[in-house]
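A reminder from the course coordinator: this example appears on the midterm review sheet, so study it carefully.

Given structure:
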């Protein structure tokens, strides 16, 4: 929409509407961030039109005609709320109650009707849900959802993290009621629509504490000497119908969120842990990809469609790892065959350009009160890689099938999982930095970059610079996202890829199942909002990752509170103009050493090309990847922040800075 105003016969300005995210600064000024626009649109507080920080909004923009002023606008509509629940305090005065949000961003006070206090009294810390905010109302109306008890600081902190990230703490009653109405009965009518795989050896492999088993693997020998291997996925789309109350709730969340002491699920437990969980010795509706594979790993045939399966056993990763290492155990022949095939597929992927980034997963051991009492570092072993390879194979197979289907000569809308090639601006400084350690990096094309990364990761293994080069290498990579515009997955080396294997915890997988079934039925239902839905899912995935990092950071701070004043070895994990980050070797807990604390030694400046802080007078360097000793000096749970001091080790050169000269003393 465009309008032109005329003043005295001259065009002075034009207006048009755009969509973007509202970012409200601490001062209260608003900025609408629009994809593709270099500069944000300024919105004054009186023009927010009931929008909160983070909301997707429509903004009517006024473009100034050449006077050099900033582009300003007025919000005309809230397209999508980032969040509808907030944490803060209740103020009750006789028959009037107001909710004051605890937020760095300005949020208007809520009016709370007395009948919606839900037992809260003046001064209580509460969770409030936005009920309505009519155009004529000065204040939004809210209702108390729950009261937060101060004695459980951890519970309050985890809930605040979820709410800050825009995830509801509980399901609405209507959602729970719809979930409870769903039947677990396997009907004859449904059986006629599915292939029956209940008599074939099938098992799940999951973490020891998992409750939602959304994938299983089956295996049997065929008369022609090949193997039939099935990847079976919980058929969530059978229960969650498009545009139902359950579907709208799942779409709003778009993902489960995994915090150190809890899961905030995308679907009610009735679905995720009961109806759809592929629990042992239960018949379940599944969506499957069946492969006929030779003992050399050649795939001779593929089939995909709806099935019914029966898991014979529930393995943990540790169970399967022991079988792989000892060559014996329950269903050992099947496990060892799958392991050999997975290793073949893995080698084939890397030979074809996939990048072999490995990662460590740090998890906390918690006591009954969710207090961290230990750290566990989980590494990806053969058991994890076995499951990973067959899930990758299924995801890739589905995406390849869908990519070949056209409607009026155009690709059908589908949520691909894509990963762009590395950004040259990030890649060039990384290649220059790697060269300082003696590693050459060929960046003349995409294949060369992938090969260079794999060579580097192989050569750097076990060397002092391994950590820094792996971390910096990962940072050069683009972020994988969901989109209907398929450009392939660079990191995996796949031309076509999607997420099909985890519909219990990811909404894009539900969309994939629906599109796939429509294609199999030859009943194409083109979803014109697929790109919008894909973007929403990418945004919620990013928010979930931020919440998970915040939850882990909280536990790091809580854990290190017991070590105030103690010294530890660490690795510099990042540098900035204001200081450097250090991750302790023993606990993998990251804190900061500020430039302010280094001022007694020298005036340190950031050298971006060398990923280092450099002393202007002494030349002393603190470079990413360097080993340092630190002392834990502060642990702030509210800010989720650890402060470290740099400790000069015994026998190291001590910097003694004076106004007249620089002396280097040997520390006794």
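Designed residues:
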């Amino acid at each position: 929409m465009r309008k032109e105003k005329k003043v005295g016969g001259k065009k002075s300005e034009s207006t048009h509407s755009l969509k973007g995210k509202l970012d409200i600064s601490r001062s209260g000024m608003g900025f609408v961030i629009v994809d593709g626009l270099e500069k944000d649109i300024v919105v004054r507080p009186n023009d927010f039109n009931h929008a909160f920080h983070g909301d997707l909004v429509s903004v009517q923009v006024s473009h100034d005609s050449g006077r050099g002023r900033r582009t300003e606008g007025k919000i005309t509509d809230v397209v999508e709320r980032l969040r509808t629940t907030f944490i803060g305090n209740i103020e009750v005065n006789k028959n009037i109650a107001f909710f004051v949000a605890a937020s760095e961003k300005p949020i208007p006070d809520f009016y709370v009707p007395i009948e919606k206090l839900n037992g809260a009294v003046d001064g209580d810390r509460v969770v409030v849900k936005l009920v309505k905010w009519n155009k004529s109302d000065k204040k939004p109306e809210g209702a108390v959802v729950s009261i937060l008890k101060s004695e459980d600081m951890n519970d309050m902190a985890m809930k605040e993290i979820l709410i800050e990230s825009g995830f509801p703490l509980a399901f609405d009653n209507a959602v729970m009621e719809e979930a409870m109405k769903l039947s677990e009965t396997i009907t004859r009518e449904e059986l006629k629509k599915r292939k029956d795989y209940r008599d074939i050896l099938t098992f799940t492999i999951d973490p020891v504490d998992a409750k939602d088993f959304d994938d299983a693997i089956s295996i049997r020998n065929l008369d022609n000497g090949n193997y039939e291997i099935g990847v079976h996925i919980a058929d969530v789309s059978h229960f969650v119908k498009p545009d139902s109350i359950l579907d709208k709730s799942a779409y709003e969340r778009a993902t489960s969120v995994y915090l150190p002491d809890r899961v905030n699920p995308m679907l009610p437990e009735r679905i995720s842990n009961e109806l759809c969980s592929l629990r042992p010795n239960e018949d379940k509706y599944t969506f499957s990809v069946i492969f006929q594979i030779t003992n050399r790993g050649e795939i001779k045939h593929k089939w995909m469609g709806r099935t019914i399966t029966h898991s014979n056993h529930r393995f943990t990763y540790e169970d399967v790892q022991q079988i792989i290492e000892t060559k014996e155990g329950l269903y050992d022949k099947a496990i060892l065959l799958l392991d050999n095939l997975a290793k073949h597929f893995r080698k084939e992927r890397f030979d074809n350009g996939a990048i072999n980034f490995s990662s460590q997963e740090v998890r906390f051991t918690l006591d009954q009160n969710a207090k961290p009492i230990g750290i566990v570092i989980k590494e990806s072993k053969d058991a994890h890689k076995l499951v990973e390879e067959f899930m990758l194979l299924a995801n890739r197979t589905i995406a390849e099938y869908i990519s070949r289907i056209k409607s009026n000569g155009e690709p059908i809308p589908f949520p691909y999982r894509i990963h762009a090639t590395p950004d040259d601006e990030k890649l060039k400084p990384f290649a220059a930095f790697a060269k300082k350690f003696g590693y050459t990096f060929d960046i003349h094309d995409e294949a060369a970059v992938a090969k260079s990364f794999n060579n580097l990761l192989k050569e750097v293994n076990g060397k002092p610079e391994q950590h820094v080069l792996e971390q910096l290498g990962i940072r050069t990579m683009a972020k994988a996202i969901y989109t209907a515009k398929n450009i392939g997955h660079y990191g995996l080396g796949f031309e076509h890829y999607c997420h099909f294997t985890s519909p219990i915890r990811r909404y894009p997988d539900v969309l994939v199942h629906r599109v796939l079934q429509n294609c199999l039925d030859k009943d194409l239902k083109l979803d014109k909002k697929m790109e919008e839905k894909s973007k929403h899912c990418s945004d919620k995935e990013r928010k979930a990752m931020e919440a998970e990092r915040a939850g882990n950071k909280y536990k790091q701070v809580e854990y290190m509170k017991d070590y105030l004043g103690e010294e530890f070895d660490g690795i510099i994990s990042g540098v900035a103009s204001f200081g450097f980050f250090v991750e302790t070797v023993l606990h993998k807990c990251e804190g900061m050493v500020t430039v302010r604390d280094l001022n007694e030694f020298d005036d340190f400046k950031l050298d971006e090309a060398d990923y280092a802080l450099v002393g202007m007078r002494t030349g002393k360097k603190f470079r990413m990847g360097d080993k340092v000793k630190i002392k834990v000096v502060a642990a702030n749970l509210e800010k989720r922040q650890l402060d470290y001091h740099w400790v000069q080790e015994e026998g190291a050169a001590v910097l003694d800075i004076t106004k007249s000269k620089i002396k280097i003393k040997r520390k006794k």
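The chain has a mean pLDDT of 90. Residues 412 and 486 are 11 Å apart (CA to CA).
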